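If you are new to this repository, start here. Below is one unmodified record pulled from the training split, so you can see the exact layout before writing a loader.
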Amino acid sequence: MKKLIGIICFCFIIVLVSGCGKEDVKSPQATKDGKPLIVIYGDFKCPYCKKVEKNVMPKLKEKYLNNHKAEIKYVNMAFLGKDSIIGSRAGHAVQTVAPRSYLQFQKLMFEHQQDEKKTWITEKVVDQQIDHLNISEEQKEKIKSEYKTKNSAAWKAANKDKKDTKAHHIKTAPTVFINGKKVEDPYHFKEYDKLLQSK
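And here is the target side for that same chain:
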């Protein structure tokens, strides 16, 4: 009997230690100034992410983003092929040099989306989208240099996105959080609106 109790206690200790060692990492909760934060985990090659861009983003911009009632953070998972990371680096370069033009760049990338199984995100394609941005030529050249330069801030930010995706246990794209709460149906604006209205 004592032996049985000892085994049970030993097993309980192992379970307890294992549980404590596995930290539950959550998505960012809110902005520094307290505005609602929309965090989207995706990939420019993901066709389901394109649905969010097409069906949800215009309404989010109109009701929450253009008037600065909420902020958005796009975490590029860069998991659908080796070319995905090129798009991620470019996106971060735009955010660094011309942050107000990021959503325009994102829209252009999704509009140009091809079969996810193909290697289509090339420097040529990315440069074409950068050239369509409503910014100065100097800014365009800075963005191009930034995303093509190894170990630049854009490269480091793209690598951080991949690490954050893994740390937050994100397995599918798109995955969306609003102030840390998961949007159960990311393809319909009403789900976003419901969470944003409750803030």
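Two things worth knowing about this chain: The first strand starts at residue 37 and ends at 42. Strands lie at 37-42, 71-76, 175-178, 181-182.
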